[in-house]
Fold tRNA-2-methylthio-N(6)-dimethylallyladenosine synthase.
Amino acid sequence: MSDPAPTRRLYIKTHGCQMNVYDSERMADLLSPLGYAMTERPEDADLVVLNTCHIREKATEKVYSELGYLKQMKLARQAAGQSMTIAVAGCVAQAEGKEIMHRQPAVDLVIGPQAYHQLPELIARAHRAKGERLSADFAADAKFDRLGAVRNPSGVTAFLTIQEGCDKFCTFCVVPYTRGAEFSRPVEAILAEARSLADQGVREVTLLGQNVNAYSGEGGLAGLARRLAKIEGLDRIRYTTSHPADMDDALIAAHGEVEALMPYLHLPVQAGSDRILRAMNRAHTADSYLRLVEKIRSQRPDIAMAGDFIVGFPGERDSDFEATLQLVREVGYAGAFSFKYSRRPGTPAAALPGQVADEVKDARLARLNALLDEQQTAFNESQAGRTLPVLFERAGRHPGQLSGRSPYLQAVHVSGPDHLIGQIVPVRIDSAAKMSLAGSLALEFA
Ligand code: 5AD
Ligand code: SF4
């Protein structure tokens, strides 16, 4: 997680009616979790918001003349090694839109009254455009930040970070603020690290990134997977976590063609109601997600799908939640992570009306989990009787037992000799439970 936020100064100049006064207060509230405290002096401000009014004829011209003064202050601050972000809000922003930025390039962002809840996102984006990082004071919450997980001590499987940060700005999520913009490591550095892992006996790598399939190194994630697959000894490639919007055709095709790319895909959907998906700023609909899954399955029919879900997002009604259950039924998941919506100050959703009562969230989560558990068990049971290649990672809990993973990331337990650790071996699946499979070695190993 990022360092505690340094205090930044915010100056808001409010013109016009009572509505604008109210909006200015709301904007100050929205920005305070990002470390902004009010100042009375614009020349001291890291962020200036001009909340404008359109009611009188000369109002627009007045805005431009004020912006002229602010530009001078911005230049003075820049000369002193400081910065100033200038935002124009209110009715002039609404009426003139981006035109303002053309006429006065010192303006960093323009935001109409309908979009104030997006202010944290827009401020973070403006900072990024200037190459600055907005370090927000978000409390660490490891639950939603699964990256940086412990390395597997067995040495047979390893995590390899290829990408960091996120540009998606889902309205519930702190990651774009805490981790900053999407950044991809160069292909060669990744290949070198992967070769060295393979030399040390690693057979499986899991490529990590907050938005791993937005990997923008040469050839994208599909190209990277194809090159990694050629590394001697590296037999299995996985990646997590992906965003539906970045699941491109090349990557989908790779799932059908690259044997080392394991048939397991963690593709969070979060919700099944388009109204909620829009409020989450997810950039996909339930239907576009379903079509995507269909397309992936046309290349790799046996792929095990996993997802992330949030219940009780602000404004979620029973009918929205039913749409989530319906989507889950249509996809059929092999695994999932489900969460109750948790309000993170500083994120746009924290300021939305219609926060859902905790008892309602609990009840929805229980219903969703019951369905997901049922699907996970059914998926596991569908493997019974099959013979699957299992990569043995470690000794099992009982003497003489080995523990490994199927291509679908299921834990598999068998009786067998230790020297099979690090090998991929055919295992006949005898029985299945919710969390694991039990099997026996399909071949004789002395
Ligand atoms: N509340 C609940 N769940 C969240 N996640 C991220 N932020 C929140 C939040 N504020 C979940 C999403 C994401 C996963 C890593 O954590 O489902 O995909
Ligand atoms: Fe957060 Fe993932 Fe959305 Fe990025 S894509 S904002 S990391 S939930």
Q: What stands out?
A: The longest strand covers residues 387-395.
